[in-house]
Amino acid sequence: MQSSFLGPLVLLSCWIASEAPPSKYYIHFTFGLTWDEAQHFCQSYYTDLATISTASDMDNMDLKQYLVWVGLYRERWSWKWSDGAYYSVSDWGKNEPHWDPHCASVYFSNKKIYSRDCGTHLMFVCRKGNDYTFVNEAKTWPEALDYCESQNGNLASFRSSDMNQIFTEFDFPVWIGLHRDGGSFIWSSGGSGVTSWKTGEPSSNANCVALSSLSRLMATEPCDVRLPFVCMWDGNVNVLLVTEEKSWEEALEHCRGLSGDGLSFDLVSVQPGDEHQHMMGKIMAADTEEVRSNTAGLTRCVS
């Protein structure tokens, strides 16, 4: 469903900012971006790539979850395994498979299968005989297939009964905000933080830093490698949904009128593309009939 910001009436949603001491949250994304892309994504939609201010911050990161490519793909009207296997597929996630995405992935949390755009960069699992190998660098589905075939294997096929044995806790790197600038390492947010390096790190051969999902140790990686990443979010910046229809001028006045008692509000512009789709997802997730029935015009407020 698409929305327009051109209508005379808008359903109002607002970003709220508090002057109280910030609460920091971490959001782990399972698709892969380069370090620069991840930084841009986090700064656009959240606060920044993760800064680890204290050792306890690492405990607040849920890094166990992952989404991986497997060998299932849609050809015309049916789903097939890339290695020609005839295993039946019954473990689709809720409302899956979707019509448009032609490639399949497995989510670790619930061991369910989800259709995804084949051009998304995800980690993946190869199969060679009865052996399964987790590859912790994100690639598109065709790139992952090529990689597995280059290792004399294929993207993973499996029986439903084998999923718990195949998709276990894997160790993989995730981008954080630490990177080398000149001769020293600094955090993308400009703040201070702690480091916990693997033995032999930091290497002089790479300038961006990733955190191990299991050991929580840091290592340098080439900045152009695509990895999952962790964004940092100021918990005092939030979305307020106002389920009232207003003109743009009324919406602006309404948001600014909410300011006070340590809170400030304003309208924000939303650029076409990813930012627009991201905000639409947040608004559509609100469980109100007003939101579901008024998607012709949407705006939001920001501090």
From TrEMBL:
Keywords on record: Signal
InterPro entries (UniProt xref): C-type_lectin-like (IPR001304), C-type_lectin-like/link_sf (IPR016186), CTDL_fold (IPR016187)
Species of origin: Poecilia reticulata (Guppy)
Boundaries of every C-type lectin domain copy: 25-127, 127-232
N-terminal signal peptide: 1-20
Protein name per the record: Secretory phospholipase A2 receptor-like
Lineage: superkingdom: Eukaryota
